[in-house]
Design goal:
Mean pLDDT: 86
Distance between the termini: 100 Å
Strand content: 15-25%
Strand order of the largest sheet: 2-1-3-6-9-10
Number of strands: 10
Structural class: alpha+beta
Number of helices: 4
Shape: globular
Radius of gyration: 26 Å
Oligomer: single chain
Order of helices and strands: HHEEHEEEEEEEEH
């Protein structure tokens, strides 16, 4: 009986039938279809988290700079652009001015003022989910005749009321827009510009923004409705761009305590 049982076992040929294999392959395909979107979402959320951490680093760097410069936040030079304002008075993601502005070439601008003190942490100037920028291309331009840009729109002295126009971190002031008081709170946020050609620059596919406030806190907000985006039609005139930048800053300031969708609207720069 023992040898007969062994003989019967040896006679079997275990394995999968074609139908069974097809079923297994189908199950794997379904699971992959379910898992891949989840992995993509997790990857996007991780990038948003890294971006938020980098903005927090920038907030600490700005605070340190202010501590060393009579509480004044970093700002670009007083070079005059083609309009009646200086480089320091316009929100920008520019880190370095090359020689396009002949009046003041070869100088740091905006957050680029911090680069010299933070050469070992240059990643904080760039969002890991920057859809159009590349720090490996931008950083080598610093110190050359070419302009260089980071991922974040930095306020500088833009949209500050008269009492806050000197850019003192603890006293940036309060704007009054349409009879609504809006304290200045936002320092920087993800760049989202839908301009033509090289003027197009988005982070997180324009769907989300991280905003850095002056207390160094950072929040992630949805941007599906373009609350923090410079639309393409704004580029029809320089005034359109400036007006939109001012509104974005008001929206960002308002978001510190309220829903930015409800922020008061402005018709022209204050």
């Amino acid at each position: 009986m023992r040898s007969y049982a062994v003989g019967r076992l040896r006679g079997r040929t275990p394995g999968f039938s074609l139908i069974e294999l097809l079923v297994v392959v189908g199950i794997i395909g379904v699971l992959a279809g379910l898992i891949m979107p989840a992995l993509s979402i997790a990857r996007d959320r991780a990038k948003v988290g890294v971006c938020r951490a980098r903005l927090n680093q920038l907030g600490l760097a700005i605070t340190l700079y202010a501590d060393q410069h009579d509480e004044r936040i970093p700002r670009g030079p007083a070079c005059t652009g083609p309009f009646d304002f200086t480089c320091a008075q316009v929100a920008t993601n520019q880190l370095w001015i090359g020689r396009l502005i002949a009046a003041h070439p070869d100088e740091s601008n905006g957050l680029g003022v911090l680069l010299e003190q933070h050469e070992d942490a240059v990643e904080m100037f760039f969002c890991p989910d920057d859809d159009t920028g590349n720090h490996e291309e931008e950083l080598p331009r610093i110190g050359t005749a070419l302009d260089a840009y980071g991922s974040y729109m930095y306020r500088q002295l833009d949209q500050l009321p008269p009492l806050g126009s000197q850019g003192t971190l603890s006293r940036l002031g309060t704007n009054t827009v349409d009879d609504v008081k809006v304290p200045v709170e936002a320092l920087a946020l993800d760049t989202n510009s839908l301009g033509p050609g090289p003027l197009r620059h988005t982070n997180h596919a324009g769907a989300r923004v991280n905003i850095l406030y002056r207390d160094t806190s950072v929040r992630t907000l949805l941007n599906d409705d373009g609350t923090f985006t410079i639309p393409g039609d704004a580029f029809q005139s320089p005034e359109g761009i400036l007006n939109r930048l001012d509104q974005i800053l008001i929206n960002a300031d308002y978001s510190y305590q309220h829903d930015p969708v409800d922020a008061p609207r402005i018709d022209s720069p204050l």
